[in-house]
Amino acid sequence: MLDHISLLSFFASDVYAISNEIEVADDVEALQEASEKLIRVIKTLFAKGVKVRYIAKLISQLNEKIF
User: Fold this and answer.
1) pLDDT per residue over 3-55, tens digit each?
2) CA-CA distance, 22 to 30, in Å (whole number)?
């Protein structure tokens, strides 16, 4: 159980950092860089067995911020 909590904590901080990057982005290139980081996190979450519905929710929320 601790491993699962540690994994989620790690990705939560990663996603939070990406969210902050999106918030302060001042050009399209900065948004693209944040988007690429998000893709890497999503691939890792999927590889670790996180359910697709949770990944989809994450994508939806961060894509909303990007747009």
Assistant:
1) 556 656 666 778 888 889 999 999 999 999 998 998 998 898 889 888 888 88
2) 8
Angle at 18 between CA 43 and CA 31, to 5 degrees: 95
* Lookup result for tokens 């670790």: 48
What are the sequence ranges of the domains in the chain?
2-66
Which residue has tokens 């050009």?
A: 27
Contact 41, 15 (CB under 8 A): yes
Largest CA distance in the chain: 41
Residue 31 tokens read as 């948004």
Q: DSSP secondary structure string, 17-44?
A: HHHHHHHH--SHHHHHHHHHHHHHHHHH
Whole-model pTM: value is: 0.70
